[in-house]
Write a structure and sequence with these properties.
Keywords: Kinase, Transferase. The chain is mainly alpha-helical. The protein contains two helices and no strands.
Length: 74
């Protein structure tokens, strides 16, 4: 952006929650960003931080390439 005072702000805490322990169990998120194991286990089985790393990878890919890694026009 040509403006020096531009700020990047990203936030979406509408589905956030604090939970004790390392395993989460709420299946939520945009399907294009969600890890495959989350989509396979929609009955709320516990999952770890790997699904967050997957989403971070998808977002990083979009920022670097300009389109989602699994994009299809049809």
């Amino acid at each position: 952006t040509p403006f020096e005072d531009s700020k990047i702000m990203v936030s979406d805490f509408g589905l956030s929650k604090i939970q004790a322990g390392n395993m989460l169990g709420t299946a939520c998120g945009t399907p294009g960003y969600v890890a495959p194991e989350l989509l396979e286990h929609l009955e709320q089985k516990p999952y770890g931080k790997a699904v967050d790393v997957w989403a971070l990878g998808v977002i990083s890919y979009i920022l670097l390439c300009g389109y989602p890694p699994f994009y299809d026009e049809s």
